[in-house]
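Appendix B, record 7
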Amino acid sequence: MLGALASVGAEMYSLGMPTTDEGGAAVDGPNIFTFAFEGVGGDPIPPVSTTKTADAPTSTAGSANGYTITVSNPNTTAVTLNSITDTLPAGFGYVAASTTGVTTADPSIAGQALTWNGPFIVPASGTVSLHFSVTVASTPGDYFNEAGADAGTVFVAPTGPTAMITVTPAPAPTPTPTPTPTPTHNQPPVADAGGPYLGAVDTSIPLDGTASDDPDGDTLTYAWTAAEGTLDDAGSPAPVFSAAAPGFFVLSLEVCDPTGACDTADSSVVVYDPSGGFVTGGGWIESLPDSCGPAAPEGVCADEPTGRATFGFVARYKKGASVPDGQTEFVFEAGDLRFHSDSYAWLVVAGQDRAQFKGRVRSMARTATSSC
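Structure tokens (predicted):
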């Protein structure tokens, strides 16, 4: 075959490895030869070459990097590329829509092989290039890449393993500090037992502690107590009180929040017996010199009045009534104080020696009303 080529004027270039032609004659040359035919074409066509570079020589595991592929045409005529190819290292991945340069289309992907389909025209003595982004492997190590192109009958030299990227371990995540909770100051609850309350003997008298409040909005617990009488559902905000005999009863309500902070408030219940009789009486009170104490209302003792004050009262329940009837009068001439009752609210007769009643009195010397 070599002799036939020589007979048509082919010049043969060898790399120095001895071999023989078809006639058995020794010639210098390897198994691959480059030929130029003087009579039919002149100088050999130089190959088109491919190079590739990485954006950065190192990347942390799982981070981003990128590559640039360049195809160079040293010939005096343009070369048409059918495709540009790349083989990604194991564990690397192409980033979609990241291609720029001679094309912006995404490549077709088969495993680690990327193929950008042309045609791409490489001008005479010119280059074309494209750039794309990748996500590097999650395993540390040195990774090489290989790129090439197809130009039909024109040979395109591939890069071979090139564009090394060293993948380094990802830094250990910085632990998120646990925030120190801001201490909160618990505000104690405020108890409110309501009242005073009024009811007849042997009846259910509703109590109301729902006005109790916690400034922090905590749920409260309730505990009602009474030295006498009966409390039903004493652990609720609104229990029921009853008594079998008339009297004046003191109640206590304690409220607590979940931290154990508590507050207590007192109230009273007047239990009356409409069939329990009546009360009447009268007498006098002597006002002596210097008898006004520091708690006396302003102006009451301005002239230090002395003398005798007289009083009288009668109170009773009429048949079937829930409010007592009667009058109360109090006269203190030295102090120009005269008043008599306007109405009664309740009357409690407890035994033979104790009675309590409450009502409104109207001052004869003044137009204002007050409670007694």
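Remarks on this record: The first strand starts at residue 10 and ends at 13. The chain has four domains: 2-37, 48-168, 197-272, 278-289+302-371.
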